[in-house]
Amino acid sequence: MQSQVQIILEPFVRRQMFPTAEDAARRLATEYVTKHLQTEQRKVTRLERKHGMTFRKFEEYLRQRSKKLQSASLKPTEKKRLGRAIMLEEEDWLEWKAASEMLDRWIKLEKDLV
Q: What are the residues whose beta carbons fall under 8 Å from the beta carbon of 36, sequence distance 6 or more?
């Protein structure tokens, strides 16, 4: 009895797109991982360009901005404006963190496939 994986890969071999089911599985998995790796890398690169710094530097930047928000020397209107700006930056931080973590996972998976 054939496994589900063999049944799925059989048409690729039958149509001579790959020499074996094992080769098809490896190459298709590699292409899948590469596609997702590139997607996450684009997200990280876009945010690095947008903010002009790495994720780690951006985290430190946000910490400093948050400390500044607690400063007693800021006027209420300045605090409000800074608070709104920080909220938007934190949205980028969350997206950036998720993309960075996913990128690391895809890179590790890519190494496992080699």
A: 102, 106
Say if residues 105 and 41 touch (Cβ distance below 8 Å). Answer: no
pLDDT value of position 1: 54
114 contacts 33 by C-beta, under 8 angstroms: no
Contacts of 62 (CB under 8 A, 6+ apart): 86, 89, 90, 93
Q: Where are the domains of the chain?
A: 4-113
pLDDT, averaged in runs of 10, over the chain (114 residues): 88 97 96 98 99 98 94 90 96 99 98 91
pLDDT value at residue 71: 84
Q: Which amino acid is at 73?
A: S
Helices and strands in the chain, H and E counts: 4, 0
In one letter, which amino acid is 112?
A: D
